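[Automated response] Your request has been received and processed.

Submitted sequence:
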Amino acid sequence: MDEERALYIVRAGEAGAIERVLRDYSDKHRATFKFEPTDEDKRKKLCEGIFKVLVRDIPTTCQVSCLEVLRILSRDKKILVPVTTKENMQILLRLAKLNESDDSLEKVSEFPVIVESLKCLCNIVFNSQMAQQLSLELNLAAKLCNLLRKCKDRKFISDIKCFDLRLLFLLSLLHTDIRSQLRYELQGLPLLTQILESAFSIKWTDEYESAIAHNGPPLSPQETDCAIEALKALFNVTVDSWKVHKESDSHQFRVMAAVLRHCLLIVGPTEDKTEELHSNAVNLLSNVPVSCLDVLICPLTHEETAQEATTLDELPSDKTAEKETVLKNNTMVYNGMNMEAIHVLLSFMEKRIDKGSSYREGLTPVLSLLTECSRAHRNIRKFLKDQVLPPLRDVTNRPEVGSTVRNKLVRLMTHVDLGVKQIAAEFLFVLCKERVDSLLKYTGYGNAAGLLAARGLLAGGRGDNWYSEDEDTDTEEYKNAKPNINLITGHLEEPMPNPIDEMTEEQKEYEAMKLVNMLDKLSRRADVKDLHQDGG
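Generated structure:
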């Protein structure tokens, strides 16, 4: 009934009446995502009627009402076939200011029309294969990049940037050809990185270092949404970027990694938004060549170095392990390097473990990232070893029992998901410099058996990668307990009592004769078997 009334007014009414009836329809169906099949034909005709209205000279408010209803109707895939034409797509491109002839974004009154047009295009491209093909024909990716450049340094147009980026993400997700076009022809990597810089308001203090305001305000919801969409689009653009072939590529990836480091050290408007922001940053860091990830850590300034020295002097002399890592002015410092970003990644990983679900999607990316960082960068590996596998003191409990990061990771080594347990074991193995004896010390043979069998290292030895020869130091507590540690379970067991000690002499003699009789029977059976074989 709603469609019939709206269709009648759209076909015959003037702009004011059309705006009112479509506003009513939009208010009523704003949260509608499932539609009645019986009204499918009416919805198709309503879409066609709206496109005819959009080519007329109508007020901006009427355009917005038309586009809002079109956005709602475009959630239904079935009605898009007859309305997804080149002419209709061009109407939306014109309203979204995606035509190359549109040089500026000066009229603020047009912003709602641009945003609604982009929303419509997002729905239509996502739900229609015909629209996806037309996007290639109309070179939509290039037009979106052009619009982004107009928005790059402009304020108050976050919604335009956000939905432009979302549409760019969808196109690069659905078409591998567009990924290559974005990367090389359209210079999407530096463009999207600059969008992130703008969203985070980054101020560079060095080539790959930015100023971090630890007590600064959180990102606004609009800035956070823009950053998340840019991160997702960048992920698609860089998904095949495992190797760096040119110096310019290396520089660009280092800049992007530095921006992502900044991203990890700021927060969004809510805890959930912060986690989503950091999750997308982790996914994108997984695409960065590992040789460029050294910018995640940076040397301390002269002032910070002096502060670190003061802090080290304040620590007791017997705390040798703890003196490696200090916290000064909210900065995690290790061996003269700022480790804040790595510490955030470690905390993020632990939160994902604590969730207890969706490990493959939520946990494996950050575990893989930390593993590769540790394998390639010595300072990162040593810092993570210090945090995850500190020197053993109390070995009375099994390695998988407890609430430390080490305990949680060891539990994952026997997880039912093969991919999860492999990457958890690999991470710990790399922290142990791929030395079997060191891994067994922290996990026990039973937990590590799967990894060692897959690597052909059940008999001991080392992995294939080379690591520095700095020695691990055992605590006095561990050295004293080591002779009584069960290698299978990895924990201290009290010596088992000898049952013979509590026997009387008569019991001992009885057990000895029983053993002699058993050995005699076994010997006789062996002789009989040999006679049968000779006779045969």
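Summary generated for your ticket: The first strand starts at residue 204 and ends at 206. The chain has 26 helices and eight strands.
If you did not submit this request, please reply to this message.
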